[in-house]
Design goal:
Elements lengths: L5 E4 L2 H8 L4 E6 L2 H9 L10 H6 L6 E4 L4 H13 L8 H8 L6 H13 L1
Parallel strand pairs: 1-2, 2-3
Length: 119
């Protein structure tokens, strides 16, 4: 919680960081066949992979989807966090909590949210 910035893999860690108000850059690596499968068979065309970004329906936190992930691009995106030039979104906690419904499976909620952003 006392970190000024983080580099995170896509997943629930991005929700945890956002709720702790730790700005992050997200990295996610997929292989060619995985991307092909997601785009063609699952019909997932979203460019958002970090859950806080999916829930916000916009890229609040930078994402680096591989290949290629370029170290210089990650460093550029983390720089505002480390120098205090980033203003944390005030509504991010509310946005996340609105999208997490403890009454149904979390995975279903994420799928529903992704489907809404791609339609």
């Amino acid at each position: 919680q006392s970190a000024r910035a983080a580099l995170a893999k896509s997943g629930t860690i991005t929700l945890e960081l956002a709720l702790l108000k730790v700005p992050f850059a997200c990295c996610f690596q997929t292989g060619f066949f995985t991307r092909l499968w997601l785009q063609n068979f699952c019909r997932i065309e979203t460019s958002l992979f970090a859950l806080p970004n999916i829930f916000s329906k916009k890229k609040v936190f930078p994402e680096h989807i591989a290949p290629p992930v370029v170290a210089e691009h990650i460093a550029r995106d983390l720089e505002p966090y480390l120098t205090g030039k980033f203003s944390f979104p005030q509504d991010i906690e509310e946005t996340i909590l609105q999208n997490i419904d403890t009454g149904e499976a979390f995975g279903k909620r994420v799928v529903d949210t992704v489907e809404q952003t791609t339609s």
